[in-house]
Specification:
This protein is α+β, with helices and mostly antiparallel strands and 174 residues long. The chain has two domains: 80 residues, no CATH class; 68 residues, no CATH class. Helix content is 28%, strand content 31%. It contains five helices and ten strands, in the order ββββββββαβααβαα.
């Protein structure tokens, strides 16, 4: 069985993900995507393959209810990158891991006593070692008893001893 979708002129559509039937659409003059329901057009967002009803939003922070759930949660969007969390704090922490990239050029030539923020340290570790976000988050949550605002490269090398690709990050700063 299938559905033929005929968008109106000036209407953009996105198919709902993961087997959810239907689509969300954005018509001329609308600033968001909506799902047509019995109650009218209700704002929705698809982030990382998850369809969510928007409860409210402001400055890239969404309070949502994910499709098939009843509890409210949060999504943060920065430059088209989304992070999810059951709390706003959790979504913010998740965003650190999502924004990491593999460009290591900005770390080349840093002295061992160079300082960086916690967030920069996480991004640097992931970029240099190729560690995944869930593994890095697990490491941070289980290895760091207290998170500081700033770390030196030497401290990061010490903290990551025995962790994934530690030799790679050590070699990078030789």
């Amino acid at each position: 069985m299938f559905q033929v979708i005929q968008p109106e002129e000036g209407e953009a559509i996105k198919l709902c993900p993961n087997g959810v039937k239907g689509y969300i659409s954005k018509r001329d003059g609308e600033d968001a995507f909506y799902l047509d329901t019995e109650d009218g057009r209700v704002e929705h967002v698809i982030a990382d393959g998850i369809l969510s009803r928007v409860v409210n939003k402001r400055n890239g922070v969404y309070k949502v209810v994910n499709h098939g759930e009843v509890e409210e949660s949060y999504i943060i969007e920065v430059d088209g990158v989304f992070s999810h969390g059951s709390t706003l704090k959790e979504a913010k922490e998740s965003l650190i891991y999502k924004l990491s990239d593999r460009d290591t050029s900005k770390y080349e030539g840093l002295a061992l006593d160079a300082e960086m923020s916690f967030e920069e340290g996480v991004q640097m570790y992931m970029a240099i070692t190729g560690a995944c976000s869930s593994g890095t988050k697990y490491f941070v949550d289980t290895r760091l008893e207290v998170k500081k605002d700033k770390y030196t490269i030497t401290e990061i090398l010490k903290i990551t001893e025995g962790q994934y690709n530690h030799a790679v990050i050590v070699e990078f700063f030789k």
